[in-house]
Structures are given as structure tokens and as C-alpha cells.
Give the backbone structure.
Amino acid sequence: HTGERPYKGQDCGKSFRESGQLLSHQRTHSKEKPFPCTTCGRRFSWRSNLITHQRIHTVETPYRCLHCGMTF
């Protein structure tokens, strides 16, 4: 609760409270993409983006437009 941010990025100087946050942020500079799609091979920097992408390979449509009712 001290607000201390001891983990500082070498490329941009941005500071973080946790080392994992810094490691994740560093991917924006290194272009590292450690999360591959097992269906098409496309790679992603963040797991959440991979999960969203994988929906194009299924019929899953979790979002519904409140205006027209279409799902996507």
C-alpha cells in the first residue's frame, strides 16, 4: 500500500509494483509473442488476445449487440 514501484523498465523507464507486470510490459518493446494458436499458428503477446482470437476457429459467439441482436 506504499505506492512503491521498484521494477523499472530499461527501455522506457516505466515503473511497476510487481515484477510480472514489468515482464508483461517488456513484450511491447521486444515484440515477443509466446502464445501460439494451435489451430493456425498465429502468435500473440498476451494470453487474453490468444483466447479472443481462438473464437474465430469455433462457432462461439459470446457477445450480442443490444441494438440489432446480432451475435459475434
User: Anything to note?
Assistant: Residues 5 and 17 are 4 Å apart (CA to CA). The chain has a mean pLDDT of 91. Residues 1-30 form a domain with the Double Stranded RNA Binding Domain fold (CATH 3.30.160). Helices lie at 19-30, 47-54.
